[in-house]
Amino acid sequence: MSTIAPKFRFSYFLKSITDSAFWALLLLTLIGLPFAMIVLFYLRLPIIDDKLMTPYLALTTLADPSRQIPLIKSIIHSDLFRITAFPGFGFAALLAAGTIFVERKMLAKLQLRVGPFYCGKIEGILQLASDGIKLLTKEIIIPAKADKPIFWAAPVLFVATAAAFVSLIPAARGGWVVADADVGLLAVFAIIGFFPVITVLSAWSANSKFPFIGGIRALHQMVSFEIPLILSVLGIVILSGTLNLTQIVESQYHYWWILFMPIGAIVFFIAMLAELERIPFDLPEAESEIVAGWLTEFSGMMYGLVQLGSYLKLYAFAALFTVLFLGGWSGPNIWPPFPEEIIKDG
Fold it and tell me: Is residue 11 part of a domain?
């Protein structure tokens, strides 16, 4: 039985080259330029003993333990460390990965299953790494009638919006926040308003009935619950007299706001579940009706990016609830205060 080889067409070859160039230019614009701006504007080279850090000075510093502490402190207090490590994207992504693992194990226990077990010697601890490798190696299938530019850009925009949300949440005292805005709470709700837009655009760009139905459901649900979400924090703004999230935490040094506004905390928590599309507000992703909702057509690493953005959003909402109602880092002082002189004199 003979096979007929497909004919080579120069137009298809030229189209593949132009498509590759377009996506390379798009990724360079969305990722390369912001990364270059961060490096140029936020990276501050450490200065030790009034000398700019050089490779030779770095080697001599590593060889001398007494000079390592100033180097470590200068790196930790740099803006680049706050953006990439703590409390920025790296810390949030690590917590998101841990949340995924714990959630899968808890759901397995509730359903009388084992959950992740074989990958890794201890309770399947390496399952997340294997899932990440699997998503990186899987083929990305684009629907034939999809709006490709928007379909490709939607997961990137979703993760970027979630990362911007994380950047506004203060994690500890002493300026441990990426963007400490005077109107931080207002900026938070402005960023939250982008999630319904990105969701409905990603659902519409797939040009499929299941994602579109799920996207419309998510749009209606998110927009409708944003109003009680905003109203539930008005009392905190009035009592604290500020929109700055760091100052809101400092205003709860003696008493948490949840003690004075328990109804507001309950309303915020319920609205937060609706914004996150969690049970019992998982109608946009009803598996029995519309498969996976607006995520149905995403595959490979595109699906992985959307999941990463979803859990970053989950972490940001949980941290925001803690900052607004539970005193943030000024929680119950169970342990004796750690002497800050050790760090300063180090």
Answer: no
